[in-house]
Amino acid sequence: MRSAMTRLALLPFAFAAGAVALAAAPATTLKDAFADHFTVGAALNTQIIVQPEHPARALVKRHFNSVTAANAMKWGPFNPEPGVHVFEHADALVAFAEANGMQVIGHTLFWHQQTPSWVFQDEAGAPISREALLKRMRERVRVVAQRYGTRVHLWDVVNEAIEDDGSPRKSNWYRVLGDDFVPEAFRIAGEELPTSVQLIYNDYSMFQPGRRAAVVKMIHDLRARGLRIDGVGLQGHWGLDFPKLEDAEASIVAFAEAGVRVHITELDVDVLPRSPDMFGADLNKRAQLSPENNPYTAGLPAEMQEKLARRYAEIFALFVKHADKIDRVTFWGVTDGDSWLNGFPVRGRTNHPLLFARANQPKPALDAVLGVAAGR
Ligand code: XIL
After folding, report:
1. What architecture is the 4-374 domain classified under in CATH?
2. Which of 66, 96, 160, 357 could lock onto 103 through a cystine, CB 3.0 to 4.6 A?
3. pLDDT in tens, 173-189
């Protein structure tokens, strides 16, 4: 009895001490660790989206407060034939996000990849007119606006319209619409989507001076036409040795100074060898598989794990330094096994670019990233 009383009497102190210890304890999840800085997201492939029992889902719920469909909302998977829409996967992503208090990122309205060729053809298979293409673009935005409205927090309106040197990409969009492609895309998105849905321009290798300057010019041009652009996405398909972080920093600062929010939209760190002409994320570029360019099929050796951890730490230190400009950091995948970098730019490799290994185990890089938030 007495000892029970003693224990009871001590309880308030135990709680108080526990509370103090809890408040001081560093966060163990990504979303909590960076809660004062930016949201942390992941791209989900279709398996994770449709399988409620998928093992990576526990990690997603624990660590992330925003999600992007790796493919499900792109024109091709979403609207493969004229008038035919596959809502199932995108709907499931939105439902999963809502059930778990996460933001949904719309990726992407207009891209030169994963867009069916019928989009650019008339009924006879001839190249489509400008007016007809603009009509199709508007129909696409109308469909997503009607179905998801403000449930999709932001859209990558245009993905990858600029080359490394700052010139416009000579895509099917450009062939039909020329320099009007980007402004017309933002005009349509701004008119059809609710005003609270943010409109983003997204691209890879944003650290390239030519692309940086062209994107800054794009922001000013759009605004001069009275069009809305809220943010710019730096994809962040980076490596252990590229880019120089000063170059990425210069772009983050330049975009913020141009008056938009910065998003890191597709972060991963390639640990496999790449020839310099393969930097970037141009899906048309491919190289041949060889034992030399696929060295870690049996797992990532400890010294490489450390190298990856150090690289992630310096990357997140940069993001924290500019947290006043950055709204979100999204990883392109959850675990190494579901990363697109197992297939790009060489098919069939075993890559290790994310914070979680193939069987969902946290890697030293996770600890390093959490350490940045804790000031370690
Ligand atoms: C990738 C997906 O992850 C793959 O599953 C798909 O086969 C190709 O596209 N830049 C982008 C993303 O904007 O949409 C790409 O996603 C990766 C490069």
Report:
1. Alpha-Beta Barrel (3.20)
2. 66
3. 999 999 999 999 999 99
